Structures are given as structure tokens and as C-alpha cells.
Fold this sequence. Notes:
A: mainly alpha, MetI-like fold, 11 helices, B: globular
Amino acid sequence: xxxxxxxxxxxxxxxxxxxxxxxxxxxxxxxxxxxxxxxxxxxxxxxxxxxxxxxxxxxxxxxxxxxxxxxxxxxxxxxxxxxxxxxxxxxxxxxxxxxxxxxxxxxxxxxxxxxxxxxxxxxxxxxxxxxxxxxxxxxxxxxxxxxxxxxxxxxxxxxxxxxxxxxxxxxxxxxxxxxxxxxxxxxxxxxxxxxxxxxxxxxxxxxxxxxxxxxxxxxxxxxxxxxxxx
Amino acid sequence: xxxxxxxxxxxxxxxxxxxxxxxxxxxxxxxxxxxxxxxxxxxxxxxxxxxxxxxxxxxxxxxxxxxxxxxxxxxxxxxxxxxxxxxxxxxxxxxxxxxxxxxxxxxxxxxxxxxxxxxxxxxxxxxxxxxxxxxxxxxxxxxxxxxxxxxxxxxxxxxxxxxxxxxxxxxxxxxxxxxxxxxxxxxxxxxxxxxxxxxxxxxxxxxxxxxxxxxxxxxxxxxxxxxxxxxxxxxxxxxxxxxxxxxxxxx
Lengths: 230, 251
């Protein structure tokens, strides 16, 4: 096993282009997944039976299915349906990037639903009562008390999920997107060097991972000043 | 005008109030009238319904029968009447229940700003005034976790006062405190009695009850068993159940 520094340097631009795609997929999915997850979490916790059932089914399917399975279903499957292929939706679903975002956002938001729900249920009932006794409406209590506390409870679990999911975006190469992993793999096919491009890609993944962890650490310190100060 | 009108109503009136938890009969047709400005202390063994009673007054528990009226406002099932009643009655809990993610000051300005739409400056001014009243203004920029239990409970009192309620409900305000902190909280409550505010306090602090209470009330098994001025209540209890209870907590 040898690491060819010249080859690594030569191919760095291609790998960085791939890393850019990985980042775009990761952050678009996070940006879409968070509000989607919040919305479904509300449904999941709704008193209305059919809404709660929908939320539960959403989690079961989207969290239960591997993201690659969802991706194949959306990218290959939807294109076979006339209603999609000949309708306005085709403007969106013809793009691999769009399909990737939908598939991963479904999966990612499935996890967010459960993280938020767990956090919401862990909020002490006394805090909700205290807010109610102060004359706040259920909606105000939700947005100003329950949710902010639930987010703090859930942040660590969300960080885990986000880091895992960032790495799992390596699957997007299966639908023609050239992300970091498939960029590295292409270089392998061209050079037959099984180590240099892949190890370089691994290092770049680590850097992305490190930056995300640092970001989460910063958010954690900001949100949890009330605990760290004690 | 408004006050003249208010004078005609007692602060709190309960008529035949019933409360069930499943099969368990927590309040059995309770009748109670609390006059404006009156200081009422409620005691009784655990499970006697005393907490349930004051939690029904501000609708933290919905009552199942009878009528509750707070400053003339009939407490119904609708959100509007519940909100109106909660504006009249502030509450202090056994477990403080401060919002952990907000500073002391934010805990106190949160409801006035959100619910009364007070501008930030006004709300902070008011918060600092009430924090000073419970001698804790110097901690305004700390978080609850940085304060002792006694300090947290005084903040909780200030937080309730910031809504300027006419009635204060205290649900065992010192039961979760270490013994050395009980005094500071009771003193803070005692200092408020001078205002002429109506107070209902569930407590077993008998010395405190003697000093502040106009009337003491003993509950057992969901009923008001006996009520009397503090002196008679402790010195000359009539019912065997109260005599029993007092002998248990005093010795």
C-alpha cells in the first residue's frame, strides 16, 4: 500500500468538486428535513387519531427504509408513472439532485420526528403548568417553553443523526450524482490506485465531520449556557 | 368604578365542587368562600385534596361538578374564562418550575411580554421591582440552575407577581426546600401580606400559618373538615381528625 501524494494533489480539484456535492446534499437535506420533521412531529403528537396515525406511519416507513431504497423508488420508480412523467412534477423529478434531496429528507426527517417527540415528552409537566398558570395559551407554551427545551434535549441525538446521515450520502452516486465518494471511485477506475483517492476522500469526509461537530458544539454551548454556567 | 363593582364579589367562591380521578373521589362537594384580602391557610394529610382544591381554582385541574367563581368570573370549560381566571390568580408551585433556559429576568418578563404584550423596557422595570421585593434583584442575570432552592422559589414568587394578580395561590411552597431555606421563602411571602392581596396557601408550616392566616382550614378525604381562626385551629381543634393530624405533625 502506497499513498501517491502527486496523484492526490493532481486529483484534488475533482475530489473537492465531489465534496461540494456532498455538502450541498447534506445541507439542503438538513434545511428541508428540520421543518418537515417538526411538522410531522406535530402530527405524530396530535390528539386527532388520523393525524397521529399518519405521523406514526411516516416514521415507520421513512425511518425504517434504508435511504438508498427510498432513493431508488423515487429516482427509478416515480419516473415510470405517467402522472409524474407527463405532469409538472417532472420538471423537478427529472433532476437526480432533487430526487436525492427528497429521499434523504424523508429519511432524515423521520429521525427528527422521533428526536423531537422524545424531547417534547421529556419536558417536565410542571414547566407547562407554570406557563399555563401565568396565563399563556397552549400555542405560546408550545413555541416558547416546550419546543425550546425539547430542542435542547434532542440536540445531541440530532448531532449523531446528522453526522451519520452526512456519511450515508455516499449512496447518491447510485443515481448519477458525483459526490465525494463517487469522485474518488472514478479516479480509482482511471488510475487503478486503490488507496490514494479513497484515502484522500476519507480525509475530506473527516474534515467535513469535524467542522459539523465543531458547529454543533458551538450551538450546544450557546443553547445550554443555563446548564454550563451552574 | 371597577373596584366598587369588584367589592361585591368574594375573591374566590366554590359551591359544591366535585373532582374525580377515575374512581377516586378527590373533592366531595366542597363549599368555600374566600373574601378579598383574606389570608387562608389549608392543611391536611397527603391525598386529602388540598392541592387539588387550589389547582381547581385556576383550572390546572378541571372540576367535574359545582361552580367556581374567581373575582366574579365564573370558571367554565371555555378557554376565555380560564385565561381570565388565570390573570386574576398567580400560582407558586412546590417544585418552583422556573423555565430553565431563561435567565431570572427573562423568567419574570416572559409572561408579561407574551401575554400582556408589555414592551420589553416596561416588563423589565416591573420584573426588577418584584425581584427586589423578594430580595433577589442582584441575581437577575443568572440562570435558575445557578440559584439555591430558596432563591429559586423567591424568583417563582416574583414571576407570579409580575402578572399583578389579585390572588396568589401557594401550593406547598416550602415542601421541596432544604430546612435552612424555608425561612427566607416564608418571610418573602409574609412580606406580601401587607399589600392586602388575597392569599391561599397550602402549607404545614404552623408558625407561619399562625402569623399570617386569617383563617385555617383542615381537609381530609376530599372534604373541608374544620375551619377556624389560626389560634383556635391549633389550640382548640374540635374534630378528632384534626386533633389527630395536629398531634402527628407537631410531635
